[in-house]
Amino acid sequence: MEAKRQRIMDLSHAQVPVGEIMRTVGVSRTTVLAYYVDEVPPINTTKHPQSAMMLGVVASDGKRMPPYWFPKGLKVGTEEYLEVMQRVVKPWIDQNFEGIQYVWQQDSAPGHKAKKTQ
Questions:
Q1: SS3 sequence, 53-65?
Q2: Closest CA to 60 of 23, 103, 31
Q3: How far is the C-alpha of 112 from the C-alpha of 82, rounded, in Å?
Q4: pLDDT (tens digit, 0 to 9) for every residue of the chain, 118 residues total?
Q5: CA–CA gap between residue 22 and residue 47 (Å, rounded)
Q6: Rounded to an integer, what distance in angstroms lies between the CA atom of residue 57 and that of residue 39?
């Protein structure tokens, strides 16, 4: 990948047209060559994209829980979040860190901010 990036830089400094650079280097038509992020056009594929929600847990020692995928279409609020914490996450923590004290840190997703989850 670094060789391809260097070849693109060399060709662009030689003021080779962008189309010629893309053909020479062999990048796909979906690849965008730009100097600034605001030059990159947005890619809109659908008005109503499907969404998937996943909960991941990574410990400071590198252990990680298998991803938990929430059922499609489920609106995850405090109750749903707590159920997964009790049914999936807590048993995994107990199994992998038996007898070890731990601190649970979460981001500011709406289900995490409720008083019940603090």
A1: CEECCECCCCCEC
A2: 103
A3: 9
A4: 567 667 666 766 667 666 666 666 665 656 665 667 676 666 666 666 667 788 888 888 888 888 888 888 888 888 888 898 899 999 999 999 888 888 877 766 666 666 666 6
A5: 30
A6: 36
